[in-house]
Amino acid sequence: MRPVLVLVESHEESVRDRTFELLTIARRLGDPVAVVRHPADAASVAALGRYGAKRVCVVESAVPDAGPVAVAVEGLAELAWQMAVSAVLTGAGREGREVAARTSVRLGAGIVTGAVDVHPGPDGPVTVQNVCDGAYRVESVVRGDTPVITVAPGAVAAAPAPVVPVVERVRVRPAEPARAVRVLARTPKRRRPAVSGAAVVVAGGRGVGSADGFALIEKVADALGAAVGGTHAAADLGWCAHDALIGQTGAIVHPRLYLACGISGSVHHRAGMRHASTIVAIDTDPSAPIFRIADVGVVGDLHEVLPALLAELDRGRRGRSPWEA
Known about the structure:
Layout: E1 3-7, E2 10-11, E3 14-15, H1 17-29, E4 31-36, H2 42-50, E5 55-61, H3 68-83, E6 87-91, H4 94-107, E7 111-115, E8 117-119, E9 126-131, E10 136-141, E11 148-151, E12 166-172, E13 200-204, H5 211-224, E14 227-230, H6 232-236, E15 257-261, H7 267-273, E16 278-283, E17 296-299, H8 302-316
Parallel strand pairs: 1-4, 1-6, 4-5, 5-12, 6-11, 7-11, 13-14, 13-15, 15-16, 16-17
Antiparallel strand pairs: 2-3, 8-9, 9-10
Helix pairs in contact: 3-4, 5-8
């Protein structure tokens, strides 16, 4: 079987769960090859092997201070040429989309974004995408030898298939000039759950009003031990990270509780969160589409409702860390 390249996503040197989902898909198409952009420790290699990565290729840059995206693009392109791979898979977050787009240009290959499933076909990998708020699914086949595919997080369940991977090192020279960047200090951020696998998600939309207002969304999420999500508008305005975007072209989530704040409920957004077990919506417009699918609807100003919620949570767990919930 031909190799399938999977770009490994990590956080603080731990492999993200969405990588295991990509490896699960890759096993359907051929022999999974995990592509890592930093030195792979034994724990990371073992985790990748647990989900079927037969080879782990550690990409090293010949250019000091080369950006991670440039290193990923050159590593994927070099390996695709060397191995004659059947496909290249990345996540559908902001970085995954950028790497996929630039890799497709380097390879002269077709690209499919936001796939919710991929399966083998007689003419190569067949990708599945949702359209019209999930009312329809379309299937596509990329013409050419090496399709590049971004896969939405949570699209498939990660399934273990343990193997002992072979670790290889690949040295590349990124095509873009290196930038003279010097790290002066590092400040670790508070770790919140990723939206794709969180049991509770607190999301904000245009109705939050500003980047400063979005800090209230984050405060509620921290009080609940929840992930922070946002709409397309919130991500485009820079109020939340693009990796936190929930919708048809972002993450598809299935939490036990989804708290939608200042979100009108566009078709695009509902496609990503409508399968939550319980949906609580807060909006000033009683006719907002989000109320049609909400289990609990609060018509009011989120800047008044959420502080009251925080005060109640504080009374209920006074003296305990919010992360102990």
